[in-house]
Amino acid sequence: MLNRDIQQEHAEAYPHLFKPASDETLTASAFAVLLNDPAATTLVVVDDEAVTGYVLAREIERTDTPYRFAHRVLYIDQLCVVRSARRKGHGRRLMEAMKSVAMERGISHLELDTWAFNDEARRFFREQGFRDITIRMALDE
Fold first, then answer.
1. Which of 38, 55, 79, 129 gives the lowest tally of CB atoms within 10 Å of its CB?
2. pTM of the entire structure?
3. How far is CA 4 from CA 59, 72, 103, 113, 135, in A?
4. CATH number (domain holding residue 80)
């Protein structure tokens, strides 16, 4: 399954938060819930007749508050390219396609988050034009 490598990387970096990749953590029913969300958009990349990557994003409507303006966001929830297919431009093409989806919907703000340990992902997202906008911190006692 496409997400196996990423799940395992997260489990190794944060074993107190993430379960190791297994048939129980990467179920078709869990992905079906994500794929059937009417606010979600999923795009895949095919290489040599096999799906080697995907991006899943959700459209979010942020309401006006005393502190922030109302705005629509295309939130990139998941991006995955299998290790053997990386550095072939698949991730870049998926991100460009998702930027086009946002533009077609009149959304000018895209967001995503990534885990601090994942230098490769952070570097990739910066290359795609993303910048740090918030820092989330944790304390485990």
1. 38
2. 0.88
3. 25, 31, 31, 19, 26
4. 3.40.630.30
Q: Does residue 24 lie in a domain region?
A: no
In a domain, 27, yes or no: no
Residue 47 pairs in a beta bridge with 50
Q: What is the pLDDT of residues 26-76, one digit of tens each?
A: 788 887 888 888 889 999 998 888 888 999 999 999 999 999 999 999 999
Q: With helix as H, strand as E and coil as C, how does the chain read? A: CCCHHHHHHHHHHCCCCCCCCCCCCCCHHHHHHHHCCCCEEEEEEEECCEEEEEEEEEEEEECCCCCCCCEEEEEEEEEEECHHHCCCCHHHHHHHHHHHHHHHCCCCCEEECCCCCCHHHHHHHHHCCCCCCCCCCCCCC
Interval 81-111: pLDDT, tens: 988 888 899 999 999 999 999 999 999 999 9
Domain that holds residue 111: 42-127
